Amino acid sequence: MKILLTGANGYIGMRILPQLLEMGHEIVCAVRDETRLSIDKETRQQIDVIEIDFLEEPKENVVPKDIDAAYFLIHSMSSSIQDFDEMEAKTAENFNKHVADTQIKQVIYLSGIVNDNNLSKHLQSRKNVEDILYQGDFKLTVLRAGIIVGSGSSSFEIIRDLCEKLPVMVTPKWVLTKTQPIAIRDVITFLTGVLGNEKTYNDSFDIAGPNVMTYKEMLHKYAEVRGFKNWIWTVPVMTPKLSSYWLYFVTSTSYKLALNLVDSMKIEVVAKDTRLQDILDITPHTYKEAIDLAFKKIEQNLVISSWKDSMISGRFVDNLEKHIQVPKFGVLKDYKQVKISNPEKVLERIWSIGGETGWYYGNWLWKIRGFLDKLSGGVGLRRGRTHPNKIFAGDSLDFWRVLLADKKAKRLLLFAEMKLPGEAWLEFKIDENNVLHQTATFRPRGLRGRLYWYSIVPLHYFIFGGMIKNIANQKNTNQ
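The chain above was modelled as a monomer; its predicted structure follows.
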C-alpha cells in the first residue's frame, strides 16, 4: 500500500515508520520542514518526503493521488496554552482538503480516550478532530489511547523525572485520578493492525493496557520496578497553575505542555471498549512490562524518538533553514581554533557533546546557566539528548537545537533555545588541514543584548577555551 504519514518526525511517527517499511509499504512522509526529519540515509532513500503545513490552506496539490491510506498523527497541545484546540481543528480541516482529490480509502487517527462527558480541553479537542475527520471522503479508524509509556514518551519521562529526583513528594490531588496506561509497543501494534482492516472502518476504539491505576500508583510502581521506595502525600490546595509550575521545574516538560497535562489529569481516562483486542488478537503489556521494555531500549541506546526532540519542546518556531546561515554582520563572536592529531576521535567527541557527556569544561557553570534559564521560563538543560553519540538536524541538545549535523563535512551547528536578549549559534568544524574551529556567534537585540554579551566575556574565555582544548586532546574533563 502507498501510505501518507503525517507527523512523521513526531514521537509516534518516528516509531511507526520503520514498522511500515518492514511490512513492505510505500511511504510518503508529510512534514513542515524536510530538514527536521531525523532519519538515517538508508531510511531516507526508502521514502518520499513532501512539505506541508496543515495549518495553512492548501495552495497546490502536493499529496500523491495514488495514496491508499494515511495516518493522522498531528497535534498542537504543547505549542499553545490558549488556542491549541483551534489549531488542531484547522489541521484536520486542511488535511481533508489535501486528500480530497486522491484515491485514499482509509485514515487512521490516534486520539485520546474520551469516555467521560466532562472532558478536558485537550480531550475535547481530540474528539472535535475526530468529528472533523469523519466528514472526509474516506473510511476513518480512530484509536483512543490512554497514557503512552515508552522510552522517550512525555508521560514516561515525566514519571521518570519525578521518581528519580523526588523520593519524597507533596503532590496535587489529581494524582488520585484513575488512568489506564499503554505500552508504546502496543500502540504501534494496534496502529499497524488496523491498516486495511475493513472491520475497523468508520469506527472508534479504546486502546489501553490491562492495569487501571491512579497516577500515584503509577509513581509507586515505577519506583518498585527500579528498586527503590518513594513517599507521596497529596494536598488539596495546589491550584492547576501551581501544579503546572511544579511539573515544569521538576521535570523536563515545557510549561505549556505541563499546563495542558494538568488540565487533562483531572479527568479519569479509563478504557470501556476492548473490541479491538479481540479483532486483532492482541494482548497488551502490563504497566510493569512497559517500564521494563522502556529501560531495555534506554540501556541499549535504542531510543528511536523522544518528545523532547519536537520543536514544541523549546522556543524554536521557524524552519531550521532560516537559521543555518550564521550572520556575519552586527554580531559578536568568540572564535577559537586548534590543530588536532586525530580528527575521527575529535569528531566522535563533538557528536557526543551535551546530555550525560556534558560540555567538556565547566559543567557546573553550564548547569547553573540551565537552572537560571529554567527559572526565567526557558527550556533549561533537562531535555538532554535522545542518543549518546548520534545527532540529526532538528534534535534538541540540552538548551540548544541542532541546525546541521554533517559528519561527512565534519560540521555541527547549534542554535540556542535558552532565554536570551538576542540569538546565538555554536559551531564546530574540522577543516581539511585537521584544524578544529569553534565559533560562538551572538546577534544582540539592542543595548541589553550587548550588555549581556560583554558581561559574560570573562566566562566565555574560560568555558570556550577549556572546551575546545579538552575536545581536541580527547580528555574527559567534566568539571
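The two ends are 53 Å apart (CA to CA).
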